[in-house]
Structures are given as C-alpha cells and as structure tokens.
Write a structure and sequence with these properties.
heterodimer; A: about 425 residues; mainly alpha; two-stranded antiparallel ribbon; 16 helices; B: about 475 residues; 3-stranded antiparallel β-sheet; about 5% strand
Chain lengths: ~425, ~475
C-alpha cells in the first residue's frame, strides 16, 4: 500500500515520467543500434564469401595453378558473439576479417581494416554506454534533491514526524526510483538478448551487473544527500563524482597503464622480421633449410632445392617467423598485460569494472582481438602444412587441389573458445 | 558601463563565496594543466620514438648489401607518421590510425600499430588532452558556476529590486555574461599556455595555434551565452540546472556518439579484402606480361621498340624486364589510386554527414574544427597516406629503372640460380642514394579550409544564442 502510494507520488513529479521515458528510449535505441551493427558485421562476413571464392577460382582457372602456395589468400573472420550487440567494443577499429597466405605470418597478422577514424573517435552508442554513462545521470537527476527538496520546502520535519520510521521512508523513496530506472533499462536489453540468442547465464550476469552498478550510484547519491547540502550543491557534487568516475579516472588510468606497459615490440618485430626474411638471400640455402628441418622434421627427407626453389622460399619465411617469435610473444604479452591491468582496476572503479566485464563477456575487448590472432596463427600453420605437402614432396599443385585447402570455420570460425 | 562592471563584480563575489564552485574551478584548472603537461610529454615521446624508428628503417635500407633491384622492391621501406606538434593539444584521430606503413612494390599495405588498437578499452573513455578538457569538461564548469546567474536573482527576489534601481535587463544579462565569460577565459589560460609552448618550443604553426585558441573562445562563448539564456528563461534555478546538464549530456556526449551510427548506415565502406580482390581482378584483366600475345603488353613492347628504334627486344640498349616492371608498377599504382580515391570519397561522405551534426551540437563542431586546425583529422591522415604512396611509387620506380639500366638482360636471367645469381646484383651504393621519406605537415590554408564549415557552424551557434538572449531580455523587460 505504502509502496503504491510512493510510486504515485513519484510519478506525479514533473520530471519523473519524461525522465523515465527518455531512459527507456535511449536504452531501446542503443539496443537497436547494437543489433543493427552486429547484423551489419555478420552481413559483411557473408558478403565477402563469394568475393573470396571468386578470387580463388580466378587463380585456379588461370594459367599458373602451380602458383597457389604463393598466390592464394585465405579468408579468416571473427563473427560477433551473441552478446556483442550490447558492448560493441573495439571491433570497429580492430579487423574482424583478415586474409592471409602461407608466407611469413608476422608481416600479415597486424594488418588493419579499412575504417573511418572520425567515426570511431567519439566511441560507440551501445547498451554498455547507456548503462555506464547515462544511467548514473538519471540517478543524479531523480535523486539529488530527494531530501533537499523537502528540506527547502520546509516539509521535512512534518514528514519525519508523521512517519514512524523516517529512515524507511527515504529508503522506500530511493528504492521506488531505483527500481523504476532498472525497469526502464533492463527490458530493452532482455529483448535484444533474446533476439540475439544470448546464453541465459550471460543474460543473468549482465542483469546483475547492471543492478550492482545502479545500486552503486544509488548509494553514492544517498551518501551525498547525507551531507545535508542544498539540492544544487548535491547535483554539483554528484555530477563531479560522475565526471571523475566515468571520464577522468579512466583516462588517467589509461595513461598510467600505457606508460607502465610499453608495447614498442610490435614495431620492432615488424622491422626485424623484414630484415630476417631478406637476409635469407645472403646466406647459403642449405643453412636456412637445415634450420627449417629442425622444426619441421616431417619434411626433412625432401629433395635438395634446384635453382630458385619454393621449398627454400617458404622455408625462409617460416624461419623468419620463428626468429621473431619471442618478440611476437612479448608483444602479445604486453597487450594482454594492459588488458589485465584494466580488469584489475575494475575492482576499484565501477565504470571500468562494468565496461571490462561487459566487453570480456561480449568478446569485443583487446583479449578477444588477441584470441582471434591466435586462431589465425593456428589456421596459418595448417595452411603451411597443407602447401608443404606439395612443395616438399615435389607434387605439382593442380586446379583440382584448390578446394582441398584448409577452410576457416572448420570448428574455428564459429564460437571461439573463451580464453 | 559602470552597472555592467558592478553586476559582473557582484557575480564574481557570489561565485567566490560558492565553495563547491571554487573547488570545481580549481579542479578544472588543475586538470587542464595536467592534461597539457602529460599530453605534451607524451607526444614528444611518441614523436621521438617514431623519428627513431624512421631513422632505423632508413639506416637498414641504406645498409642492404648489393643485390638485384627487385629484391629491394620487396625489401621496401617503412614510412612512420610524424607527430604534428599541435597533436599534443588535440591528437584527433592520430591514435586511431596506424603509425607505420610498410611500402613495397605492387602492394599497398595498411598503416599498422596504432595506439588505440594496442590499448585496452579504457582508451575509448576518452583521452586526457587540453582539447578534451575544453570540449567536454569546461562547459560543465560554466554550467555549475552560471546556472543561477539570473534565476537566483529571481528566486531570491533581488531581480525586482535591481530593476527598481533602474537596472535594465540587457545590462543585467550582459554583466552576468561578462562575469561567466571571465571564468571561461580563466579556463582557457592553461590551454593557451600549452599552445604557446608548442609554438615556441616545438615549432607548431602560429596561425594554426591562434585559430585554435580563437575557435575554443568561440565555443566557450556559446556555452556562456547558453548558460545565461537558460538561467534567464527558466523559472527556477533548479530547472535551469537540469535543463543545462541535459543539454550538455545530449550535445557533448550523446550526439557525437550517435552520429557515427547514422553516417555509417548511410554510407558503408568496402572491406580491405574486397578492395584488394578488386585490384587483383582488374590487374589481371589488363593483361599478362608473361604472355607474348597479350594485347596490352604487345602494344607496350611495340611502343618501347619504336622509342629505342630497334626491331627486337634483344637489341634494346636496356633490360626489357626492368621496363616491364616499371609498366606493371604504373598499372597497379593506377588501380590503387582509383580504389583509394573511391574509398576516400566514401569516407569523406561519412565525415560530411558526421559534421552536419554540428547543427545540433556545438561540441561536434569544435571537435571537427580543432582536429582540422591541429592537422590531426581524417583528411590530414589521408594526406599523409597520399604522401607515403607517392614516396612508395617513386622509390619502387627508381629501383625498377635500375633493373632496366644496370642489370643486363643476360645477367637478369641468371638470377634464379644460386650459382650465377651474384651477376644479377647491382652495387649497394645505389641504396644510399635513394630518397628518404619526409612528409610535410599541411599548410595553414588547408587546415583553415578543413575547419571552415565547422567554424561556420560555431559562428551560427553564437549568433543564434545571442539572438535568443536579446529576445529573452526584451521579453523579461516588457513584463513579469
């Protein structure tokens, strides 16, 4: 009864219904935009399939089908996970499609996708954004003057006197507002999650995360109100808190993490890899091949190279990859460390914690990008072994061999194993 | 003029008494200083790192042993994007784009190793730079210091008193605007000092820095006007605050994030895979240089024979294989240029749609103007890519010509056999005489032209706010 009464009182406030409807509209729009973006990404992945097939077919039908090991590019892609619609993350700037050939992988793996950086600059409008940045603002608007207004209107004393338990009264008022905000932001997500077939466990996890984050802001608003300032001062303090927690601390944290974990190994390995590939022309071919056979004993029985030989050419590419492998691992480790430090900071700064958890679950963060690279590495080594089967046994590669090449997606294009 | 000064002075006194406001202002000034100092330090470090890598790459190129020129075509060269000094003020899209491109024959590689791709998602919260402080945080401070400027006088009943003493509404609004504008000026001080530092120490363009400061002055003036306007028209100070915070949230945070979705939906971009496949397909369609009967290359051969006035390829004074390499590179570069132009046009269309959101968000306008003036917008990145491509083409064609002039056809054919391969090599002295990459930053005309439309929007905003203030002042003066 009392709850119903509080609800009616709240809804009679001038700002209440417009604010709630606005939040509902924003949450809905973000879910729609997220679903549209993941659908677009899936459509792009579908769109490239015939293009890729035509490219390979043109090679197979050309005059030099034997060039396949050198000339054939193989497409890889990283389809968005069902939850990606809610947290689009870094998928706009990191490639989710990459084609590779059986030559040195370290010169191909870090290539970028075409994107307009001005579109990426402001950040994405997705559910994670509405939840992290906008929801707290609504908490501030609806709660900053909960008590101060009664004080300013001189009703506080009367209210306290009439209520048997004043603490409970204020709690009820906050709870009504909090629950209504939750009721505005959650259903659009739930609908989106059902449309996108998000696993139930993740739906529950996101719902709980959202609730926890909301409760944090409700608690902060309550705390500020305890100070007994005027409503404008409350609003000022809360907006300052919002600014510090969602904008300033994360940018400072980014600065700190990036200078604590420098990742210049990426550029260094790019330069070193090129040096290594081209140095092969200056050393005896047997030396390169012996190094290759040490890690590829399977092919060590191959006939010695004659003239310009693809055996040697592919061998020195692989040897170059191996020579920069420590740098590649260090580079990846540096990036992983940056991501891990971010996850750890999330325990102290709620906005970071929420974003990090959401993007981890949605597999749209830096770690997910690296996991995709790992799968490309695995696929690339299968490609190499496939072509070596021809090169190192002097078997000619013919038209009919093209379809036999490993395909991305044999258990690797769908859902990636979570890290 | 005295009543104006009086009003302004009174407003300052009130603001000084508002402890929360003073702390907030001090925080923003501190943050602005931290942003300027860290940003300058960071950009100096980035610039040094990229210059170091460029030198390393140049040295590696010059130190290559004697070899066949075509080997050098594939050894290639790295182009590192230099850091424009004003990037410390507004890095724009620089962290989002790659910083290094590998340049080689008949391929156009992507710029790789960009900062954002190498950062955790924290980077998407924004970066602490003077531009970020002025674009996002400064308006909020103006709102909290100014929302009660007029509304409080009305709430407290002092407005009536002031008018009874002969104060006109116009004078009141102007005085309040001067007071709040002075706060805006104060916020600009650390940013201005940072700009001066960049000009004096790092050699940033003085006209660009001046225009930047002028643009941000314009931007903050719009917010000052908007705050005074809301304070004048809303019945209560509290409503003015809510309206202003809502307007800030919408125009500074929400609209800039929604705009890319719309721009991306209206104009899509091809993937890299599609562009590369298209170039390969078109190149294949032109002809096959290995096929003696291919129409395109037969015509090319005839033209070459005619030019040198000989009957057979064997009689040419130069190596025909080198000339074929030059021709092949010319054809593929033409295709790259065609597809790149198409892509740039599509991207420009996207950015164009984005920029139209300046109509509803001054933040969108200042962001565009600021990036363009700092030479860190998309167009500036494209100009860098264009220079890298021109350098790539020139370098590759010099090497191809070297094959034509310095490797005889007879020796060229021996290149595949390890035993005779050394005959096909040319001296390493050639590598040292190849040009190195020195991209030029954009001139002030280019930057101003890029910032022009956005600056136009900002002027429009200021005029509109000014007109609204005038209208509101007259209405307040007439009645109530």
């Amino acid at each position: 009864m009392i709850w119903k009464h509080e609800l009616r009182l709240f809804l009679r406030e001038r700002a209440a219904i417009p604010a709630l409807l606005l939040l509902l509209a924003l949450a809905t729009a973000s879910v729609v935009a997220g679903l549209a973006e993941t659908a677009r990404q899936r459509a792009v992945i579908a769109r490239i399939q015939p293009v890729q097939a035509a490219d390979v077919a043109a090679l197979a039908d050309g005059d030099n089908p034997g060039d396949a090991p050198y000339s054939t590019y193989h497409a890889t892609w990283n389809a968005p996970n069902p939850l990606a619609f809610a947290a689009l993350g870094q998928r706009d700037i990191a490639p989710y499609i990459l084609r590779v050939r059986a030559l040195g992988l370290e010169a191909q793996l870090y290539d970028g996708e075409t994107f307009n950086p001005e579109l990426a600059l402001p950040g994405r409008f997705d559910f994670a954004f509405v939840l992290t940045y906008l929801l707290p603002m609504f908490v501030i608007v609806l709660l900053h003057d909960l008590r101060a207004r009664e004080d300013e209107a001189g009703r506080s004393a009367a209210l306290q006197a009439m209520s048997r338990n004043a603490g409970l009264l204020w709690f009820r008022r906050r709870a009504v507002r909090g629950l209504l905000l939750y009721a505005m932001i959650l259903p659009p997500f739930l609908v989106g999650a059902l449309v996108s077939r998000v696993p139930p466990g993740q739906i529950v996890a996101v719902s709980l995360l959202a609730l926890l984050y909301l409760m944090f802001w409700l608690a902060l608003a309550t705390l500020v109100e305890r100070l007994g300032w005027k409503s404008a001062a409350n609003a000022g303090a809360l907006v300052a808190g919002w600014l510090i927690l969602t904008l300033i601390l994360p940018t400072l944290a980014n600065l700190a993490i990036n200078s604590a974990v420098p990742v210049r190994q990426g550029l260094e390995l790019a330069l070193a890899h090129r040096q290594k590939v081209h140095a092969a022309w200056e050393i005896p071919r047997a030396e390169t091949l012996n190094a290759f056979y040490r890690t590829n004993p399977r092919w060590s029985g191959a006939s010695p190279p004659k003239g310009f030989d693809d055996k040697w050419y592919f061998a020195f590419h692989e040897v170059a990859d191996e020579s920069v492998a420590p740098a590649a691992r260090a580079y990846q480790q540096g990036l992983l460390d940056r991501d891990r430090l971010t996850q750890r900071l999330g325990w102290f700064i709620p906005a970071i914690g929420l974003q990090a958890r959401l993007h981890r679950m949605a597999e749209t963060d830096l770690s997910a990008q690296l996991a995709y690279q790992d799968r490309i590495r695995e696929f690339h080594s299968r490609l190499r072994q496939f072509y070596y089967g021809y090169l190192f046994s002097d078997r000619p590669f013919t038209r009919t061999d093209y379809p036999k090449a490993p395909k991305w997606g044999d258990g690797m294009g769908g859902l990636p194993p979570s890290r | 003029m005295t009543p104006l000064i009086l009003i302004a002075r009174e407003k300052w006194r009130l603001m000084r008494r508002n402890r929360v406001a003073v702390i907030a202002l001090a925080l923003v000034l501190l943050l602005s200083t931290i942003a300027a100092v860290t940003s300058v330090a960071q950009q100096a470090e980035t610039a040094a790192l990229r210059a170091h890598f460029q030198q390393e790459a140049d040295a590696a190129f010059a130190a290559q042993p004697s070899r066949h020129p075509h080997r050098m075509v594939h050894f290639g060269q790295f182009a590192f994007k230099p850091v424009e000094p004003l990037a410390a003020f507004d890095p724009g899209v620089d962290p989002f784009t790659g910083t290094a491109i590998f340049l080689e024959g008949h391929r156009q590689n992507s710029a790789n190793f960009g900062d954002v791709r190498q950062s955790s998602l924290l980077v998407r919260f924004g970066q602490l730079t003077p531009a970020f402080v002025l674009q996002i945080l400064a308006p909020l401070i103006l709102i909290f210091l100014g929302f009660g400027a007029v509304a409080r006088e009305r709430d407290g009943g002092t407005l009536v008193q002031l008018r009874a003493h002969g104060m006109t509404i116009a004078a009141l609004l102007t005085g309040k605007a001067i007071a709040l504008g002075a706060i805006g000026g104060l916020i600009l001080v650390p940013a201005g000092a940072a700009l001066a530092w960049m000009v004096v120490v790092h050699g940033a363009s003085l006209p660009a820095a001046t225009l930047l400061l002028a643009s941000y002055t314009l931007y903050l003036a719009i917010w000052v006007g908007g705050v005074i306007l809301a304070s004048a028209i809303m019945r209560q100070a509290r409503s003015a605050l809510i309206l202003l915070v809502g307007a800030w949230l919408t125009t500074a945070i929400l609209v800039p994030r929604m705009a890319p979705d719309i721009a991306g939906a209206v104009q899509s971009l091809p993937t890299r895979l599609e562009s590369e496949v298209a170039v390969t397909r078109d190149y294949r369609a032109i002809g096959d240089s290995h096929d003696p009967n291919d129409p395109h290359f037969a015509a090319f051969r005839t033209a070459v024979l005619k030019k040198y006035n000989v009957a057979r390829v064997e009689d040419l004074p130069v190596n025909y294989a080198g000339l074929l390499a030059v021709e092949g590179e010319r054809l593929s570069a033409e295709l790259f240029a065609r597809y790149a132009d198409q892509l740039f046009a599509q991207e420009a269309r996207q950015s164009d749609i984005m920029n139209r959101f300046a109509l509803v968000s001054p933040t969108a306008a200042i962001r565009q103007a600021s990036m363009a003036l700092a030479d860190t917008d998309r167009a500036a990145h494209r100009r860098f890519l264009g220079q890298a491509e021109a350098f790539r083409y020139d370098l590759v064609q010099r090497l191809n010509m070297l094959e034509a002039t310095d490797v005889t056809a007879e020796n060229d054919a021996k290149g595949d056999d390890p035993a005779t391969e050394t005959l096909s090599r040319v001296s390493q002295d050639h590598w040292r005489s190849m040009p190195t990459f020195h991209p030029r930053p954009s001139g002030i005309e280019t930057r101003a032209k890029g910032a022009g439309p956005a600056l136009g929007y900002l002027v429009g905003w200021l005029l509109a706010i000014g007109a609204c203030l005038l209208f509101a002042g007259r209405r307040m003066g007439n009645g109530r």
